[in-house]
Amino acid sequence: MGATVRAVVCTRYGPPEVLRIAELATPTPRKDEVRLRIRATAVTSSDCYLRGLRLPPAYRLMARLAVGWSAPRQPVLGMVLSGEVDAIGADVQSFDVGDRVFGFDRHRFGTYAQYVCWPADALLTARPRNLTDEQAAAIPYGGLLAQHFLRKAHLRAGQRVLVFGASGAVGTSAVQLARHLGARVTGVCSTANLELVASLGASTVLDYTVEDFKAGTERYDLIFDAVGRRKSAALLRGAERVLAPGGARISVDDGTPKLLRDDLVMLAGLAATGELRPVIDRVYTLDDIVDAHRYVDEGHKRGNVVVSVA
C-alpha cells in the first residue's frame, strides 16, 4: 500500500462543487482502532446538509462552532461504509485483518475515501454474506435512524403506522421494520414510488400528489415523518386529527438519535434473511461525487445513493 490514499475533501461550505478529489496520507490505526479499506459508502441527506450548511441560522452558528467555521475541520465527509479490516491496533481483539464489515459513524466522518481509521467499538459489525458492499452501504443510515424512532414511539404488533416519505432512505427502512414488528403500514410517497413502497410491505400506499391522507377515515397509532419538517411541515399540518386515541406523531427531526451497535447487528441479521431489503437509487464512483451530491440535493432519491470506492 502506498503512502497516500484517494479521498474527497470539502474545501468550504457550499454547493456540490466545493468537493474535490485529493491525495491524503494513509491513516495509521491507534492501539484501539481498526483501519478499514472502504469499498462502498453512501451520500446521505445529512452529508449534504453539512456540506452546504443548510441549517436554520441558530443551528448554523452552532454547527460552525462544532465542526468548523469556514469549512469542516474533518475535510473528508461521509458517515457510512462497507469494506474490510485492513489493519488493527495493538489492543484490538474484536476484529481480525480481512474481516468484511459495514458500519456508521456520524461524528468522525471520513468515509469518502479509500481508507479510514475507526475505534474498534464503533458502530461496526460483520457484513451480511449475501450482500454486496454497495448493498450493505445502503443499510446503516436509514436503518439505524428508522429503528431508533420506531423504538422511541414504542411501536408494536397490531398497531397502525403511517410513514410519510416512505420512499427515502429512512422511509424505506421504516416501512420494512414496522412490517417486521407486525404493524400495519401505510406509506405516503409520490406517484413514481407507489410500486416500490408496496413491494417493501406497506399494506396501503397513498400518493400525496393526488390525495390527502388527512381526509380519509383511517386512524393511526403512529404518524412517522421520515422526511423532516423542512419539507413536510405544510403537508403534515393538521395530521393530529387522524391519530387514534393515544396515538403519537414523531419526526426524524425530534432530538438527537441514540444509535446502537446492537441495532446494526439486528439490521444485518434481517438483511441476511431477506427481511430487510436495501434500496438503492443510483451508484456513483468516487470521481463522480459532485454529481452524486447534486442528485441528492434535488430531494427525489428513492432509498439510497451509493458510492463505489474503487
Report on the structure:
This protein is α/β, with parallel strands linked by helices and 310 residues long. It folds into two domains: 166 residues, Alpha-Beta Complex (Quinone Oxidoreductase, Chain A, domain 1), CATH 3.90.180.10; 111 residues, NAD(P)-binding Rossmann-like Domain (Rossmann fold), CATH 3.40.50.720. The protein is built from nine helices and 14 strands. Strands 3, 4, 5, 6, 7, 13 and 14 form a seven-stranded mixed beta sheet that branches. Strands 10-9-8-11-12 form a five-stranded parallel beta sheet, sandwiched between helices. Helix 4 packs across helix 5. The protein starts with a strand and ends with a strand.
Mean pLDDT across all amino acids: 96
Categorize the overall geometry. Answer: globular
Q: CA-to-CA gap between the ends?
A: 14 Å
* Total domain count: 2
- Determine the fraction of residues in helical runs and give it as a percent range: 25-40%
What attributes does this structure have?
310 residues; alpha/beta; Quinone Oxidoreductase, Chain A, domain 1; Rossmann fold; globular
Write the layout of secondary structure elements.
Blueprint: E1 4-10, E2 19-25, E3 33-43, H1 45-52, H2 57-67, E4 80-88, E5 100-104, E6 115-119, E7 123-126, H3 133-137, H4 140-152, E8 160-164, H5 169-180, E9 184-189, H6 194-199, E10 204-207, E11 220-225, H7 229-236, E12 243-251, H8 261-273, E13 280-285, H9 289-297, E14 304-308
Parallel strand pairs: 8-9, 8-11, 9-10, 11-12, 13-14
Antiparallel strand pairs: 1-2, 3-4, 3-6, 3-14, 4-5, 5-7
Helix pairs in contact: 4-5
